[in-house]
Write a structure and sequence with these properties.
- This protein is an all-alpha fold.
- The protein contains eight helices and no strands.
- The protein has helices spanning 5-26, 31-41, 50-62, 68-83, 85-109, 132-147, 153-173, 179-203.
- It is globular.
Length: 206
């Protein structure tokens, strides 16, 4: 991936969009999207199969909590091996900074979790916008795909998009996030991934 001004513009637009959606969600202006999506996708014990609930919980588990650290470390080591130290550190710093910004935005917008159905994951009273799981998945998987060896990049981008999508979907299906929370998380994570990949290209120039 060559570094172009368009990359920075795309990242800036994604960050601006994250802020706009967060403002709208905090003022109740995203319910037109959130309520029908949650009504259609949120799982409930009884009507939904236990296997489907367990699968969504497993996907969600991989995207957050202490287990996220060894996953990020393993992916970073892979990048370090294939593309050098700058690529590995780019992924680590992207995961760290995007997580911190996601947490700061949660406090800033102070959106409460959905209560349309009983939660199928423990969120311990934390705030809702943006989804930290969606942010992390988009940031980490997209950085890896963008910095992967060129011959793998197309397949890695498709895999990254699938993993980020499934992570966000699991949060909606478990009833712990609105669709706009996940959308904001994807946008935030993608913005940091683009910036990290572009800056890594600059640092790695001979």
């Amino acid at each position: 991936m060559k570094m172009r001004p368009q990359i920075y513009l795309a990242a800036a637009l994604l960050l601006a969009g994250t802020g706009m959606i967060g403002w709208a969600a905090a003022h109740g202006l995203m319910l037109w999207l959130d309520q029908p999506v949650s009504a259609a996708l949120a799982l409930r014990h009884g009507p939904a199969s236990d296997r489907l609930i367990a699968a969504m919980q497993a996907i969600s588990w991989l995207g957050g909590g202490p287990q996220r650290t060894p996953i990020v470390a393993a992916i970073a080591l892979g990048l370090w091996r294939w593309r050098g130290a700058a690529a590995g550190w780019s992924l680590v710093l992207t995961a760290l900074v995007s997580n911190l910004v996601s947490g700061w935005l949660k406090l800033s917008f102070a959106r409460v979790r959905p209560d349309l159905v009983p939660h199928l994951d423990n969120v311990a009273g934390s705030l809702s916008y943006p989804s930290g799981h969606a942010t992390n998945a988009a940031a980490v998987y997209l950085v890896f795909a963008l910095l992967a060896p060129a011959e793998w990049r197309g397949r890695m981008l498709a895999l990254a998009a699938l993993l980020a999508f499934l992570t966000g979907l699991s949060r909606i299906m478990l009833g712990v996030h609105f669709a706009s929370d996940v959308l904001g998380g994807w946008m935030l994570g993608a913005a940091f991934a683009l910036l990290a990949a572009a800056l890594c290209q600059r640092w790695s120039k001979p």
